[in-house]
């Protein structure tokens, strides 16, 4: 799953719009494709979600409270979806940094992809434990 867009640094669109469009493509697009295709996975399937090294840098810029939430190993995808929606809402009102989010729509969307991948890997191992399905996220760099 390689969904990825980023606005240029000098983009004129308001940050809230950038956050909404970026999250819809990078995070929600990945989630929706996974929901559609996971029922088709055969035993020993391999899934790779493409994240970014920017996700780590962006996570480091989150408040300690947000970092702790995003690093939880028991998070459900519904909770992550709520958090990603909260980021977009906060970005649209200009309150994202005050709420502990980084000032990067791309970075936050890729935090979402990385955390989603951890959740999906855990859920697949619990619900299809004998199938040997492997799910990873990668950060290819350039």
UniProtKB/TrEMBL annotation:
Per its UniProt record, what PROSITE patterns does this chain match? ADH_SHORT
Is Aminoacyl-tRNA synthetase there in the keyword field? no
Supply the alphabetized keyword list: NADP, Oxidoreductase
Could you give a GO molecular-function term held by this entry? carbonyl reductase (NADPH) activity
Family membership noted in the UniProt record: Belongs to the short-chain dehydrogenases/reductases (SDR) family.
Descriptive protein name:
20 beta-hydroxysteroid dehydrogenase
